[in-house]
Prior knowledge:
Layout: E1 2-8, E2 13-20, E3 26-35, H1 41-53, H2 62-69, H3 74-80, E4 82-88, E5 92-100, E6 106-108, E7 114-117, H4 120-130
Antiparallel strand pairs: 1-2, 1-4, 2-3, 4-5, 5-6, 5-7
Helix pairs in contact: 1-4
Amino acid sequence: MRSCSIFFSPKRIVITANIETPDGGLNFGKPTEFLKHDPAADELGRAIIKVLKAKHRDKPHAMEILKEAGFESWKDFSAASHYMTAEMSEKRVIIRPYFSGIDGEYYEVMNREKNTDTEPFEVGHAAIRLLEYCG
């Protein structure tokens, strides 16, 4: 199942492919989409689906993503951003919200995921609605 990370920062929205590491962890990778703040639901959904459907995934240097998002450090970026993940199967997208702990790590908000079809408006709308659970 392909997955991506979605960061809603005050400066930009960053959607980046997740690349699984040999030990089961995740690295952020390319393709990465950057959107202006407050996009329409269908624009957000199209960007999420584009990243999820990408066949070729590369691991860029993390600072490339941070600088393009307008930040100098992961600490500042993660402190300022709301975070969620999206996973896509053949015909469904599952979006999960996370909250930021005092330790700077993200933790899944349990029982709040949205399971939607792959229509861009529905995917984007689900992500926007889940923002209220991110903290």
